[in-house]
Write a structure and sequence with these properties.
Layout lengths: L14 E7 L5 E7 L1 H10 L3 E4 L4 E4 L8 E8 L6 E7 L18 E4 L2 E4 L7 H4 L5
Parallel strand pairs: 1-6
Antiparallel strand pairs: 1-2, 3-4, 5-6, 7-8
């Protein structure tokens, strides 16, 4: 049995993944992996996810340059969630979200309303162009 066989994959062959920043412990993003994505992440030491909307592997930073260097890969007690400990590279401070923010979790529920609590660090229109 390999480490891949220990994962509890869902009916689509996917497992949810949380990316947490090594230094700050900020939760940067949530994504999905299939077996190939997890294997490539372990081999490369860089986050590789599975894009459900594009139905293909997605190397984090392939378009934006905002790569996630992986320090540790963990699973939870049921082996149905993966936690990556990463360093977010490509911009300082690191940008993990396609909106140009540090974290995808930038909305906070306060007084019954969602409020944006993290600034845009870089205009998303300039992130996804050649040359970044």
């Amino acid at each position: 049995m390999t480490y891949l066989d220990a994962i509890t994959w869902d009916a689509q062959g996917l497992v949810p993944v949380i990316a947490q920043e090594q230094g700050s412990k900020d939760v940067l993003m949530f994504a999905w992996m299939n077996r190939e994505a997890l294997q490539k992440t372990a081999e490369l030491g860089r986050a590789v996810y599975f894009s459900r909307s594009r139905n293909k592997l997605w190397h984090k930073g392939e378009e934006s340059g905002h790569v996630q260097r992986v320090h540790a890969i963990r699973i939870d007690c049921d082996a149905d969630v993966v936690l990556l400990t990463v360093t977010q590279e490509g911009h300082s401070p690191g940008i993990a979200c396609h909106t140009g923010r540090h974290s995808c979790f930038f909305s906070l529920l306060k007084d019954g309303q969602w409020q944006t609590v993290e600034p845009v660090l870089k205009d998303p229109a300039t992130i996804y162009t050649k040359g970044n």
